[in-house]
Amino acid sequence: MSKFDNAMRRQALSLPALLEEQYHDLEPKARSILSFQEIFSIQRIILTGCGDSRAASMAVKLAFEELTGIPTEVVTALDLSRYYDPKQLGFAPRNPLVIAVSNSGGVARVGEAIQRAVGAGAFALGVTGRRDSLLGRSASRVLDLEIPSFESAPGVRSYLVSVLSLLLLAIRLGEVRGRYTMDQANAYRRDLLRQGEALERLLPALDEKAEAQAGRWKDFDAFDFAGAGKDLAAAWYGHAKIFEAAGKRAMCVNAEEWLHLNFFMRDVDTTGTSVVCTGRNRGICRVREMVHHAAADMGRPTAVVTDEPELFRGEGAEIFEIPKTEYDFSSALTNFVPLALLAGFVSAMIGETYGRGCKGPWAFADHGAGITQSAIILD
Amino acid sequence: MLKHFKLQTAERDVVSLTEDIKAFVEGSGIREGLCTICTPHTTAGLTVTSFWDPNGFLDLQDEICRLIPTRIDFKHQHDTPQDAAGHVKSSLIGVSFSLPIHEGKLLLGHSQGIYFLEFDGPRNREYFVKLIRDPDGP
């Protein structure tokens, strides 16, 4: 066992079993949570959340549009609660469908956003482990999450379950609306489920590589994370974990913007760049150009998370191989795993406490008070 | 004597089974008996209809759909509206029937063909044909 074993790593190593278990719990729930009538009445979808839940929404946004054919947008909870045009909430009976994911359900801004949306006539589906939480009480309908407890760490298990629940919902909406056959829907579902076995096979190598990478990068001051399309969500997740687990500077940007902004960074040798891109990502040409400029032209320490390592070899970047899926959208279920391992190892190697232990300047945020204790404004 | 057949259907397909079943009957050596055809699906049916005009197949599916349209207020919501409608269509049309075997051939009228009706699809489907020789027959 690694001498830098840590709770995030243990969460990551538990994912194959968790995926299997949660799939069997969530598939029937996603199947029955909305009636045919409700599914056919949906004209627009808003995915909302904060932090990892927002990242999960970003990860599935394109899948929702591809599978359901319904225009879908990701709106942060603050934007939905305070700035979203009220005429666009309730523009038709029980529309748009607003889906909010929060395992704890206690995030004030998510609860506020859902209350405002429902008040304006939207239909809100809360995906939460707590029916009695603010989200559970505010939503029109609740899809119950039952994630087995595990030792606390910046969310790894909860992120996988968030993405899984959202993808199962998207597959269900498209199936009922006749976008594809039931056989095809089940093929999509199998593609989610079988990633557990594939991840289990790849995890030992990912674990070893992440530890080695963290050993080289642990003293870096800053990290940036890039991606495109659905893979940008995994990059966002990666930068969030660096903040939470290691307390270091981090940034997330799409691959195009990286070449407008991030490459200007002075500290070429001590900024770790992580890129997430699956082989069938429509932005892969641009991402490969970005990786070439970062790793080969500039010599910046670069890591690439991909299901097709051959596409990125020869650039001087470290490559983390993730499960190859039948359908590209479903790789959002596992493409974040190497970045969770990396952040966990960096944290362990520098002796950093997750979330700074909510002590000293961070004491105000103890028990999540920074996000649960906030004035709810409904106009 | 039982034979298992497989087929792949398109959405709202009408697939002719006539030639395959005729060949099985004629190759069996049974002169007098009974041929039973069945399909183990709940969103498909079996029927006998005229083969002369392919538009007749469209009429058949259109009229079945007119009688049992795909609606979103079915109580069965486990799968899809098309699936729910398909169950009703399948029950009404039926999933099995028998035809006599006479003088070594399937007893079909000159316009009749045997058809598999797909009420969902595209799907991988199957059907079975059981031949029974008359106890006192050749």
What report would you give on this structure?
The complex is a heterodimer of chains A (379) and B (138). Chain A has helices spanning 7-13, 15-32, 36-40, 52-68, 77-83, 108-119, 134-138, 157-176, 182-193, 195-217, 231-246, 255-258, 284-297, 337-350, 369-372; strands at 45-49, 72-76, 97-101, 123-128, 141-144, 222-227, 249-254, 271-276, 302-306, 318-321. Chain A is of the alpha/beta class and 379 residues long. Chain A is globular and about 55 Å long. Chain B is of the alpha+beta class and 138 residues long. Chain B has one domain (2-133): YjbQ-like (Jelly Rolls), CATH 2.60.120. Helices cover 27% and strands 36% of the residues of chain B. Chain B is built from 3 helices and 8 strands. Chain B has a 5-stranded antiparallel sheet with strand order 1-8-3-5-6, covered by helices on one side. In chain B, a hairpin with a 2-residue loop joins strand 5 (96-102) and strand 6 (105-106). The longest helix of chain B has 13 residues, at 55-67. Chain B is elongated, with a radius of gyration of 16 Å. Chain B starts with a strand and ends in a 5-residue tail after the last strand. The mean pLDDT of chain B is 95. Chain A binds chain B through residues 31-32, 35-37, 39-40, 175-176, 178, 181-183, and chain B through 11, 72-74, 77-84, 120-124.
